[in-house]
Amino acid sequence: MTKSDFYYDLPEELIAQTPIEPRNHSRMLKVDRTTGAVEHRHFYDLCNYLKEGDLLVMNDSRVLPARLFGIKDGTGAVVEFLLLEQKGDKLWEILVRPGKKAKPGAKFTFGEGLLRAEIIETIEGGNRLAKFECEGNFFAALDQVGQMPLPPYITEKLENKERYQTVYSRELGSAAAPTAGLHFTEEMLADLKNRGINLAYVTLHVGLGTFRPVKEENVLDHKMHSEHFSVPEETAELINRTKAAGGRVIAVGTTSCRTLESVAARYGCVRECEGYTDIFIYPGFEFKVLDGLITNFHLPESTLIMLVSAFMGYENTMNAYKKAVEERYRFFSFGDAMLII
């Protein structure tokens, strides 16, 4: 299995630059997991494919405004920080551009002094550890100074920060949005509940490794990034009750999928827990939890299209993507959705 097996040709104009309004008016390609048959719908049609007793599992992680532009003390050089993971009180692993400006001991100022930082050390891979200082709450200061860390393929400015958050986001910590959830509105969630479709939440803080390309031609040589997750007791119980009653567990997004399948692989069942996962799901993987998946369209040769191929089969996946290109669906983070059941 090679990375080039997962290549498809995508015209650049199909990469969505701005979100659709309202959220649930994006298009939705419904794919039969068994036969590969496709239907062209809109996201607001989702309820027509769900049944009473089904369970949607969503990632409630909230994106940090993790991109900071600041000034190096003493020289006035402009730098860009990208916050990756919190390592302690106001201590963060960061990516810095240009890196040569950020040697240990270098100090920086952001937002005219609202935030200050000192580089503590250079760590594996060239990232840095930075210690921040501010008056009052760090996250409040970050919200004032920081920008949303949009993926590199989005070049247009995002006017409303909340459009890169799901309406149910609450646990701050992601460096990128769990984008399959961007299609839901508050009204749609209420309607689903009224129809007897249950909702449950996990947390997986999405790292920038999510965008890291697969460089090795042999897929099995690729090393996945590690991300922190947690599954609350209430969610574990809902999943187990749903399964016992013959309902379907449908993951909203590859992050929710990776969380559930990581826990099941580790413990043999879904239970309350937290930890780190670097699970790599590719064709041949045996799913223990998922009965359905809601997801966006992913980059060619990415680990995410490999995960989708594992769930609904390689031929079905590549055929669905071919049809999505032909029908001019919108791709990637602000793009359209797939429902696979």
Description:
This protein is of the alpha/beta class. Helices cover 19% and strands 28% of the residues. It contains six helices and 17 strands. A nine-stranded mixed sheet has the order 2-1-17-16-14-3-12-13-15. It has a six-stranded antiparallel beta barrel with strand order 5-6-7-10-9-8. Strand 8 and strand 9 form a beta hairpin. Helix 5 packs across helix 6. The protein starts with 26 loop residues before the first strand and ends with a strand.
Distinctive features:
single chain; 341 residues; alpha/beta; 9-stranded mixed sheet; 6-stranded antiparallel beta barrel
Strand order of the largest sheet: 2-1-17-16-14-3-12-13-15
| Overall morphology | globular
Order of helices and strands: EEEEEEEEEEHEHEEHEHEEHHE
Write down the Rg: 20 Å
Helix content: 10-25%
Main sheet record: 9 strands, mixed
Percent range for β-strand residues: 25-35%
Uncertain runs with pLDDT below 50, 5 residues or more?
none
Q: Which secondary-structure class do the elements indicate?
A: alpha/beta
In round numbers, the mean pLDDT is 95
Number of helices: 6
Q: Roughly how many Å apart are the termini?
A: 25 Å
* DSSP summary, beta strand count: 17
From the structure provided, what is the oligomeric state, counting identical versus distinct chains?
single chain
Could you give the topology of this structure?
Blueprint: E1 27-31, E2 38-42, E3 55-59, E4 61-63, E5 67-72, E6 78-88, E7 91-97, E8 107-110, E9 115-122, E10 128-133, H1 138-145, E11 171-174, H2 186-194, E12 198-204, E13 227-231, H3 233-244, E14 249-252, H4 254-267, E15 273-277, E16 292-296, H5 303-312, H6 314-326, E17 337-340
Helix pairs in contact: 5-6
